[in-house]
Structure formats: C-alpha cells, structure tokens
Description:
Helices cover 18% and strands 31% of the residues. By secondary structure, the chain is of the alpha+beta class. The strands form two sheets. Strands 4-1-5-6-7 form a five-stranded antiparallel β-sheet. The chain has a two-stranded antiparallel sheet with strand order 2-3.
Amino acid sequence: MKRVFIVTLAERTDNGAALDIRPDVADMSAVVDGFEQLFPLMHEWSKKVGPEFTVYAMGWQTDEAGRLHDGYLSAWESFGSMYRLDRMTGGYVKVSDYSGTLDYSRPVK
C-alpha cells in the first residue's frame, strides 16, 4: 500500500468562487504519487486552462496493485478535499491545508 493524492480542477461559480468538485465529475482529475507532484501537474494544466485556477487534493491509499481503495468518492463528498492549491499569475501557488481541521465547510459538488 502507498499513499497517493487525488486532485481535481475546481469549478468556478458566476461570482468567481471555487467549488470543490468530486473526481468523478470534475472536468480534469488525476492521481499523483506524492504531494510534490501536484506542482508540475498544475504547470501542465495551466497550458490547457490558463494561468489562474484552483485545484483540490486529497490523500488516499492504494492497494498493492496501485488501485485506489474504495470509499474515496464518499469521503470526498462527505468531507471535501484536504488541500486547496490556487495557481496565480506568474506560476505562484498558494497552498491551503485543511487536513487538520474537522470543519470541511467548503461546498462540494
């Protein structure tokens, strides 16, 4: 077993707020082997979606074959993601860590 990170591209509301989107319905989602791999992934995604966007990420376990353990979608839906990464003009990334909180009050779609 190993820990991986599931990441999704946030959806934007009409007023510009980012919505935490489940991986199965997001326009873009991926699984990376480590948190540090989120940054090159965001660089690649910026070529498709532009310089400013938000992603949400959640750590999860895989089995010995590398498949995600069951329950990640229900966990995402119940609690939301654990990390928010906002990519800004110039390639800067602001990381917000919600993993140590119990209040996952961000809207999840």
